[in-house]
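pinging the channel bc i need a second pair of eyes. not urgent but kinda urgent?? the chain im working w is below, pasted from the shared doc
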Amino acid sequence: MKTDFHLTWLVARRELVDQLRDWRILMPMFVLILFFPLLMNFTAYQVVDFTNQYGGNLVAGQVVPLLLMVVGFFPVTVSLIVALEAFVGEKERGTIEPLLSSPLADWHIYVGKLLAGTLVPLTASYISMGLYLIGLVWQSMPFPALDVLIQMLLLTAVQAMLMVSLAIVISTQSTTVKAANLLASFIVLPVAFLLQGESSLIFWGRNGVLWLAIVGVALITGLIVRLGLSHFQRESLLGREIDLLDMKWVLLMLWTHYSGSGEAPAFVKKIWLMVRPKGGEKISAGQVLKAGLADLRDWYAGQVFPTLRRMAASIWIYVVLGVIVSVAAYYFTLDFLDPSKFTSAEMEKVLDEASKFVAGSKPLSEITASFLFFNNLRVELIMLFLGIFTFGVAAVLIFIINFGLIGAALAVTQLLGLSPLTIFMAGVFPHGIFELPSLLLVGAASLYMGVRMVTPSTRDSISEVFLQTLADWFKVAFGLAFPLLLIAALVEAHITPILLYNFLP
């Protein structure tokens, strides 16, 4: 272990020496380290002074840690260029061949580059934050509480590691520095949006939730590092010469893994023959229908069900998680809305608001089957979109929210004097038996995609693994999840209201 660390540090030290002797890297960094804290100190002083004049002490107290986080963010964005050039820059300069031909293992090289790419921006951020804190003391400004200060330092660290790890992955997959720099926006913009969300938590005084944000970002960072290590191969780094966006190849790859073959289905060929017959051959609609049913049967047997078997572990994880979250939300809501904690008037108001939330704000006349279907479809597509960028983590969070709402809603019905079992059997089970498995399958497919992406593969590239797992997601979605959603929407719109009307007192 000691030898491995020594070899990794050799690569990191080599990278640090190259960085710290380049004035084009050092000058912008020094300017940001020295100037930006002064600007934020001036801004904080003006905001606090202005808000205090009008009794805004609470707002002033939140501005100081917010600007501390911003001070730590900007040096990382400027230093990101170093990580983006970690591999592709050396390749363009012709200095990477000696490193790649050394007896070092692939992970020694990768982790060494990652370590060097993280140390410089993180050090710059901490120095900048330190100068900002010194400025607060100098100006007799309110100093952040110790727990808030620790949160800001940890947030800066995990966000710096997140951005650098993404930049290293981009550097290994790019063929030119220009291409890597153009992809930098896919790093800075998402982290900037994350920063806005964290800023909202700070302003609203939800600092406890920031611990969850730190854990979440650290988890995603670990997965990205794992992704880079899994797919880093020095041979492919040297062999890749040009980037081409071949949409024909992408679509063919998706269709091949989705259908099991690169050919058109038999019923499509028969439709073509029916429209444009050859050699006098006549194709009837019955033959087309028979061919279509045969294709559908073969697709389910050869593609959908084998994919479900590969996803078995992810599915069971979601099943267990759904049960735990629902039960936990049920008992937490009962405890949180315990009548002994409120006066009768307060309890009546709380239950009134809770019942409105459970019932929903949309009039019953507008809750149609199409509205329910497209609303649930939107949720599942969001699970796919966010799951792609978070290796399935965000899909798990959306799943938890949905199952948690079920448990919370049943607890509210009990506090309202109704039977939770009756409400569940009449108001949730009829359509939930279709809708909840659909949500579970989509979430499991997103988690499976994330697991496959971080699993080492010497045969397939990142793009090939991504397209394969995306095709698997579409198999599950179009083969099972979306049809279940459609059935659930029809049941929820036309059957569930009748059951609730007949069973509720």
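so Residues 311-503 form one domain. and The first helix runs from residue 2 to 20. — does that match what u expected or am i reading it wrong
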